[in-house]
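Predict structure. Chain length: 404.
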Amino acid sequence: MRLRYKSTLFILFILILGCLALGVTYHIYMGYFYEKALVIADEALTINYQNGNDFSNKKNKTLKFMVTNNSTEEESFYIKLANVYASKEKYTLKGIDDDLNISNDLISSIVVSEVKIAANTTLAYELEITSGKESYHGEIIVAKGSKDSSTFADIIKDNSNILDNPTTSFKEIASSNEGLIKNETEDGIVYYYRGNITNNYVTFADNLWRIVKINEDGSVKIVLNNLIEGNSSYASGDKYEFDGSQIQSSLNDWYTVYLKSYSSKIANHNFCNDLVIDEGSEYYAAYNRLNKNYIPNNSCLGTVVTTNIGLLSADEVVMAGASTDDNKEYYLYNEDIKTDYYTMTSAKKTSSGYFPYIVEVNGALSFNTNANQSKGIRPVINIIKNISATGNGTKENPYVLLDI
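Prediction complete.
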């Protein structure tokens, strides 16, 4: 009797385990095949993300989606990749029902700005991601209408991950791609790039540049990807101002030769020459701001110089990803730059001279160089706001400004 009782309990135990196993298997099966499906109605269009619209993996992955036009008239839609974090991944977008076939680096960007879809029609697509065996994630967005942005600033924002705050503190280096950071100033909204950015390249005036930020007025600040030929002292004697300095003269000479014929696309803009010194101290205000409190500022707290060519501020260098430590993993670092170069920001003034901030060849921000020393020159200009561009900002497909 006791044996039969134990046998019954054993059988019940096995049945319970079996039911649990079936339940878990069913849950996993349903989750894998169905829970990620997402259907969104966007006015006349219905978008069916058959595998969901977000992706995260280390392996090759394919996302399938369909777009249905429920109206009796032709409509259009655009396709965008957003919030992408990736290293060496590529993607290919293929149309099953049309001839769309686009391949590129896996970055946040407008994949296609406008696709026409006939009335009462469904179009199917596959997004194939080829992995470099690194972790990646992001999302695909399909929405009604076209995405032909009118200005350079609009295009940059459409092709970037926009964050309200950086993911690392300004006390440390930024070595990953932190995207485009939104920052409110007393004059409006600034968007600045931080970290190892791979889609802020611009070809302009037969040179390669990097986007630093979108200014409050919609103009775009860019910095030359390399140094110009020839070095210069910053200033000499008792003159510390950028305006009228030796380095400004060198910049103006270079502008005349290489940029003057493109001047219709270059804004006469404000540059910050921080000359506010703490009373009773050899240090300027920037030293406390950047080296003690770690609060770089997009607003100019010093002298404003309005010109068509200038230099980076030390604040902009810190926001880009620099600190006092080496950093070879942010966009201002360039292995081809073999000379330290000046910024427009003052660090200290002693009996031995004036010391502006410099960027060292290892990407670090430093302030121990006397302004009378000959250092590199890395020009900065601002592109006018009423201009558009092609490209997606990668090194292989940089932005190219269109004619006005």
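Summary: Residues 21-35 have pLDDT under 50 and may be disordered.
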